[in-house]
Amino acid sequence: MMHTELTHGEAKLHARKVAAELKTGNGLVFLPGEPTRTWEYSDQALPFRQRRYFYYLSGADLADCAVTYDLATDHLTLWIPYVEPRQVLWNGRTPSLDECLEKSAVDSVRYTRELSAFLHAYIHQQDDPIIFLLDRTQAPVELDSDFLARSLVKLDVASLKPAMDEARVIKTDYEIDLIRKANEISSAAHRAVRDRLADFTNEREVEALFHSECALRRAKRQAYPVIAGSGDNAATLHYEANDQPLADKQFLVLDAGCEYACYASDVTRTLPLTDALSSESRTIYRLVQRMQQACIDAVRPGVLFYSLHLRAAHLALTVLHRIGILKGHPDKIWLAGTVAAFFPHGLGHHIGLETHDVSGRDRLLLSRFELESLGLDRGNNNASRSAKAKRQFVSPETLVAMHSGQYGIAWKPDETEETSTAAAPPPPYSGRQKLGPGMVVTVEPGIYFCREYIEGYFLRSDRHKHYIDVEQLERYYHVGGVRIEDDILVTETGYENLTSAPKVI
C-alpha cells in the first residue's frame, strides 16, 4: 500500500537535503525499492519491508518501485510497476499514477517499464553522466554490464550513502510527528501489558497482547522483534523466545516498539512480577531509574552523547560499589572498565526510519573502529541494522577509551597487573557527535546479572576479578536485569520525552 499520510513536499524536502550534502549540481540519484520476494523453494511471499533509503526519497511503501532524482533539474520521479487488470483479482489493485502523484511528494510518477528508456536517454544527453548509487548491487538492472562498459557513465557508489545518512540524522517536523505517533501507540500497548500482567502466566501472552494493542491502533508492524524476558531471561539483551513461565520471577523486561508509516519507536519497561520484590531488586531498579533520569536531564544541543554514557556508567559504579558488588578503590575500578560487566551496552542510538538509525558522518556513541571490530560496520552491508545489533556492545576497553577521550587521560594498565597479563591499550576513541536540535535518540541504561557473561569473562580476568565481590554478587543474580528506555527529541533549548509509558513500580 501507499501511505496516504505523507504530505506533499516531504520527499522533495528530503531530496534537497541530500543534494545539499552531495555538494554537486549534476548527476542522477537512483534508488531501487524493495522487490517482491518469496521464501526459498516456495510460492509464499516474504513479509514486505520497504528499503529505508528508498522510502526517504519517495514516501512509497510499495513493492517493485524505484526513484530517481535529477540534481540539475531538481526533479524527483517515482517509478511504479504496471499491474495487469487480471492480476488485480489475486492481489488487489495498486495506486494509479495519478493517485501516487496525489498522495506522494514527488514531481512525477511513471511506470517502471519506461525506466530503461529514461536511463539510456539520460546518459546519452549528458556530457559526463554520473549516477549516484548506494552500492554496486543497486545498479539499475535496465543498464546491462556491456552497456556500462561501453558508455562513459560513472557509477558513484561512495558519495550517496554518507550524504543520505547525514541528511537523515536531523528529523523534519513531519518525521518527528510520525515518531511521536509511534511512541504514543507503543506507550499505550505498554500500559495495556502492565494492566493485564497479573493475569498472565507466560511470556508469550505479553508478546501477543503487545502486538494486538499496536495493531488495533493501525500499527501492524513492529520496529523490531518483541523482547519479553522474565527472570534470568531479562539478562539476555536480545532475548526473543518469549515462551517461559512468569512464576517465581522478579522482573519482566519488555522491550517493544511499533513502527508507524515506516518510522520506529523503541521503548523498554521493566515490570514487577510479584508484590514482594526483594530489596536487591528494588535497589537495582532505583539505580537504573536514576541513571536514566540523570542522562535525560543532561540532554541539550552541544552535548557529546558519549559523555552521557559515562555519566550513567559512573553512577552505576558508585551504587554497585556502595552495595558491595564492586570492591576496591573506585578510581581503579573505573579505569579498569569493570562496571561494563553490569552495564555492557551503549546508552542509546538514533531512531527514525530504522530502530537503530543512521548516525551520519560522525558517530553518536561507538567509534568506527569498534563497530568494525564487532562486524557491525563493514562497507555497505546491513549487519548493523539487524535485531542483534539493536544495542551496541561496550567492552571495558571501550569504556576506558571513552573516558580517555573525554578527559584526555592516557590509558595505562592497572599497576597491580603483571605486564604479561595486562590488557592491550584501547583503540583511540573517535565518537564525537554532538547532540543537535531535531535529533531523536534513545536513552536506555540497564543493569544485568548474566551469570555466564560475568563468570565466564570478568571473574576469569586478572584485570577484573579482584574488583568483584563474588559472595555479594550471588545475592543479586535473581534480579535478572533491569532496563528502562525512552525516545528523546533534542530541542533548541533541551529535550522532549516522546515516550509516555509509566515507569514507576
UniProtKB/TrEMBL annotation:
Its cofactor is Mn(2+). Keywords: Aminopeptidase, Hydrolase, Manganese, Metal-binding, Metalloprotease, Protease. SMART domains: AMP_N. GO terms for biological process: proteolysis. It comes from the Eukaryota. It catalyses: Release of any N-terminal amino acid, including proline, that is linked to proline, even from a dipeptide or tripeptide. SUPFAM superfamilies: Creatinase/aminopeptidase, Creatinase/prolidase N-terminal domain. GO terms for molecular function: manganese ion binding; metalloaminopeptidase activity. Transmembrane segments: none annotated. Pfam families: AMP_N, Peptidase_M24. Residues 9-140 form the Aminopeptidase P N-terminal domain. Its EC number is 3.4.11.9. It is an enzyme of class 3 (hydrolase). Gene3D superfamilies: Creatinase/methionine aminopeptidase superfamily, Creatinase/prolidase N-terminal domain. Belongs to the peptidase M24B family. Catalyzes the removal of a penultimate prolyl residue from the N-termini of peptides. This is Xaa-Pro aminopeptidase. The lineage of its organism: Eukaryota, Fungi, Dikarya, Ascomycota, Pezizomycotina.
